[in-house]
Amino acid sequence: MEERIQSLMHEVKSYLARDKKDLDAFRMKYISKKGVIGELFEELRQVSADQKKNVGKVLNQLKQTAEAKLAELSEKVELGPAASSLEIDLTLPPIPNEIGNMHPLNLTRYRIIEIFERLGFNVADGPEIEDDWHNFSALNFPENHPAREMQDTFFIEKKGNADNKQDVVLRTHTSNVQIRMMENQKPPLRAIMPGRVYRNEAISARAHCFFHQVEGLYVDKNVGFADLKQTLYHFAKEMYGQDIKIRFRPSYFPFTEPSAEIDVTCLICKGKGCNVCKYSGWVEIAGSGMVHPNVLKKCNIDPEEFTGFAFGMGIERITMLRYQINDLRIFSENDVRFLKQFQPII
Ligand SMILES: [Zn+2]
């Protein structure tokens, strides 16, 4: 009888189960009450008393081994073939690691920062959720002023108690950072402010409800319009090459006086006309102007002593021209086929 137990032990240890069927067969043969081990326990009753102890011991070992084996086999079958070391095919080619790359908007943002840093501009940051004062009032947009309509705003909640009711908005431009800078620091100030902004726009190839801006501010003694013009000419040439054509157009913003918009030749259609330039051959890349004396006063800077210029541009627009992209919606669609075209420079 002991010999039979030993041979069964060997069988149990070397049993292979490929699927559930094999597993059931194992259970029926060894574990179930009518299985071979069950039968051996029946036979144990007939064994003489002097042998009973030894035979019983090995038989119990066999039972425990079979149960442990069953547990091991069930786990392997449930996890599938990959879990079994026998199933791994070491000759298969490896899955290549995909190296990510920077988003085109970030590539452009870093290029803009690089250009302005060389002109001595710092980088400043501020909140995306802003109060009415920093987004509008301090920028010379009085309440109920029609200029507020130029920017359709997401208002999010009322802040403060009844005596101090201020609207809270998702900032419509990064100009709030300019105000925070002028409030907290003394001139000379020279910084750019990149960041995300929000407007309640109908989404199209040219506009989205969120986009990115870079604004710039330079406040010091004797800062003039010539400095503004030269700075933006320099920027456009650094970004798009020395041959780019640039024009300044008079414009209106509540926070600058005089104000100008800056256009460059459309690099998508090379001036022939397309949906991005509205078939004019020119694309506006920035708004700019001399900081309005009222804005300086609201930030406790004496406009008799200091002057300054400010400008703002959309990073999406700059990127579209840079890479000849004709629809800005694609920047936020997360389409890997588009995004992986902007390979990192290693
Ligand atoms: Zn065009």
Global structural class: alpha+beta
Helix content: 25-40%
Our measurement of the CA-to-CA distance between the termini, rounded to an integer number of angstroms, reads 73 Å
The low-confidence runs, each spanning 5 or more residues with pLDDT under 50, are none
Report strand order across the widest sheet.
1-5-6-10-9-8-7
- Morphology call: elongated
As a percent range, the share of strand residues is 15-25%
> What's the total helix number?
11
Ligand species: zinc ion
Order of helices and strands: HHHHHEEHEEHEEHEEEHEHH
Radius of gyration: 37 Å
Mean residue pLDDT: 86
Overall strand count: 10
**Could you describe the largest sheet, including whether it forms a barrel?**
7 strands, mixed
Would you mind describing this structure in some detail?
The chain contains eleven helices and ten strands. The protein has about 350 residues and is of the alpha+beta class. α1 packs parallel to α4, α2 (about 20-30) runs antiparallel to α4 (about 50-80) and α5 crosses α10 (about 315-325). Bound molecules: zinc ion (ZN). Zinc ion binds near residues 269 and 276.
